[in-house]
Amino acid sequence: MSEPKMTMAQALNTALRDALTADDAVVVFGEDVGALGGVFRVTDGLHRDFGERRCFDTPLAESGIVGMAVGMAMNGMRPVVEMQFDAFAFPAFEQVTSHVAKLANRTRGALRLPMVIRIPYAGGIGGVEHHCDSSEAYYAHTPGLTVVAPATNADAYGLLRAAIESPDPVVFLEPKKHYFAKEEVDVGAGVPPIGRAVVRRPGADATLIAYGPSVPVALAAAEQAATEGRDLGVLDLRSIVPFDDETVAAEVRRSGRAVVVAEAPGFASVASEIAARVSERCFHHLEAPVRRVTGFDVPYPAPKLERHFLPGVDRILDAVDTLHWEDAA
Amino acid sequence: MTADPLAQAITVARALEETGELVEGVPAPDTGALVEGYRRLVLARRLNEQASALVRQGRLAVYPSSRGQEACQVACASVLGDGDWLFPTYRDTAAIAARGVDPVEVLSMLRGDWHCGYDPVVHKVAPQATPLATQLLHAVGVGHAARLRGEDTVVMALCGDGATSEGDFHEACNFAAVFAAPVVFLVQNNKYAISVPLARQSVAPSLAAKAIGYGMPGVRVDGNDLVALDHTLGEAVARARAGQGPTLVEADTYRMESHTNADDATRYRTDDEVAEWVGRDPLRRVQTYLRAAGALDDAREDEIAAVAEEMAAGVRAGLGAEAAVAPEELFAHVYATPTPQLVEQRAGLRTELAFEEA
Question: The Dehydrogenase E1 component domain covers which part of the protein (chain B) (predicted)?
Fold first, then answer.
């Protein structure tokens, strides 16, 4: 029997709905999340069904939203706040880096902040300049934050439930180009642990390491490579922090080659960190240097130039071609 | 109190004149309660002096003194109930002590032990905020959460004049007003943000006047007048508790010392200006009033001084001892469960420590 098909927005909505039902301490707030149901409809119907106390609009001020969430989490609530777009989360950056990430440590664990900051992130939607950023490096670089990026609709459901249940603050990055794509989602599959990567496709020749919106691109590249006789595996990190060194190293040791795929500019990026970790841990198993296929080190481009910026199948396969393959002859 | 919101936000409310005489028309305060208030002022002053002395002796790294602001420090704590919350800044050590937290625990942060030396949950006192105005939003969140659960908690949120220029001050005032959050914002306008004078922060008619734009009451009060502060803050707390929303209180006061020991106030203000504020000392004003009212004599003063000395001796003893730090604690609180990466780094540090000890 197949599970019902839902979009990622619906999967996230279902997760919020189930969390609001399961725990009276959960509250959802942000900009336009009330009557409108969010600009991406992720909070659709929550205000109607759970009331003003559980799901409400705030003034248009992101530092205010995150700062208020900190206080509510200090006082027994589990706030789930929405930043309307990735770049609109930047006004809240001081709250995130100075307090959300640090309050538990500052107070020796006396004040933990069970809160989730949902951020629609990354590009591929033909959006304007400030609607397409991949901002994960800023958050991943800040100790105290958990950083999660689902790639599938089932993970969007499961990881959001796990994020809301986490005792630690979670930055939850939602690949916005997947909001409206339908997939089967088994909401009864249980909550996956945060911090575990998953092998989306086993592959003997090389491992593509990706997260969030880059996972389907990596899978497409592996599909294409298979027609050309190359067996590429795809690893979906799901969680950037904590990072699953164990699964990543195991896969790369098996295949001996690795390409990291991510949309964000590559310089000083999460992709760079992954490449460094793989090199440190798997050096004697590697047949070739670890390659990164990332966005260029430029500001997010205008829609007509977007396809040249985003890592695509061809660019991934070009990188795979450089992995010191022995000549068959 | 006046019915005109702007006049209320600009006119400095006062109960005791600088001379210690009761302002005409103000009802006489309960002298028993005021003696207790005076005792707390003396303790706060002694704590400021003792902490500054410990900096000079090298026992504390730094101390931002609230000398001159003791009436604000005492009043903001004494108007709160046990279930209420206090959100202090780095300059509000005396307020935290007035709330009942052991000053040794508070000051251990400045000895370098950890970033917060007391348990904020037990005392309902947030960690002292170093970034400006960010804590005001947390105060709004604590208050709003309480309201959602139907609790009558009130939150006292402190900041200085410089912090009113920050974006988070604006967002906190606006959020509090929109959600009718039970928050009292107390701005201790001590006239300087390190070296930058008030005139460079704002040309508003007063800082309290900003409240009008948010749709909440703004009240300006003499920040060196304990009786007026008790009254103004007490009313604001009562409003908040009754569900009538936030109040912005501006206390007109003065930072008698430099920003910290690392600062040199002679570079940006005159001795004459400081001398003028010596004449407005918050302790002497209450002392003069109580002595004239026959509620305070030498014997009672000696008792209070002895209590203050005992407190100071406890601070010296508590902070004189070197506190043992546990290097592995670096990894203990970052996450509820340390990540595999932190576990690995902790093991590395453990190895280093073993070599150090060997």
Answer: 40-308
The answer to whether residues B304 and B337 belong to one domain is no
The answer to whether A27 and A57 are in contact (CB under 8 A) is no
Specify whether B262 is located in the same domain as B207: yes
Closest residue to B334, CB basis, from A67, A71, A144: A144
d(CA A199, CA A234): 6
The answer to whether the CB atoms of B336 and A70 lie below 8 A apart is no
> Is the domain of B33 the same as that of B62?
yes
Domain A5-184: CATH superfamily, name plus number: Thiamin diphosphate (ThDP)-binding fold, Pyr/PP domains (3.40.50.970)
Minimum-distance CB partner of B141 among A69, A91, A112 = A69
Spell out the residues 6+ positions from residue A134 whose beta carbon is closer than 8 angstroms to its own: A86, A121, A122, A123, A262, A263, A264, A265, A295
CATH of the domain at B119: 3.40.50.970
Query: Structure tokens of A296?
Result: 């260029």
- CA–CA separation, B185 and B249 (whole Å): 6
pLDDT digits (tens, 9 = 90+) for B175-196: 999 999 999 999 999 999 999 9
Q: Whole-angstrom Cα distance, residue B124 to residue B246? A: 19
User: Would you tell me the crossing angle of helices B103-111 and B298-320 to the nearest 10 degrees?
Assistant: 40
- CB atoms under 10 Å from CB of B352, counted, come to 10
| Domain spans in chain A, listed from the N-terminal domain onward | 5-184, 198-321
- Known catalytic residue: B255? yes
The pLDDT tens digits of the residues spanning A3-28 come to 889 999 999 999 999 999 999 999 99
Q: A255 in helix, strand or coil?
A: helix
- Of the residues B254, B255, B285, B289, which is catalytic? B255
Which of A81, A88, A93 lies closest to A34 in space, CA to CA?
A81
Together in a domain, B192 and B137: yes
State whether residue B187 is helix, strand or coil. strand
| DSSP one-letter string for B200-218 | GT--SS-STTHHHHHTS-E
Full-model pTM: 0.96
**Do residues B128 and B81 make contact, with C-beta atoms less than 8 angstroms apart?**
no
Q: Report whether A116 contacts A160 (CB < 8 A).
A: yes
Q: Which helix (H) or strand (E) holds A23?
A: none
Assess whether B22 and B153 both reside in one domain: yes
| ipTM associated with this complex | 0.96
Question: Are residues A236 and A210 in contact, defined by beta-carbon separation less than 8 angstroms?
Answer: yes
User: Which one of 2.40.50.140, 3.30.1840.10, 3.30.2420.10, 3.40.50.920 gives the CATH number of domain A198-321?
Assistant: 3.40.50.920
Give SS3 for B87.
strand
Domain range for B349: 326-358
Q: Which residues does chain A have within 8 Å of residue B141's beta carbon, measured at their own beta carbons?
A: 67-75, 79
Q: Is A27 left (phi over 0), alpha (psi -120 to 50) or beta?
A: beta
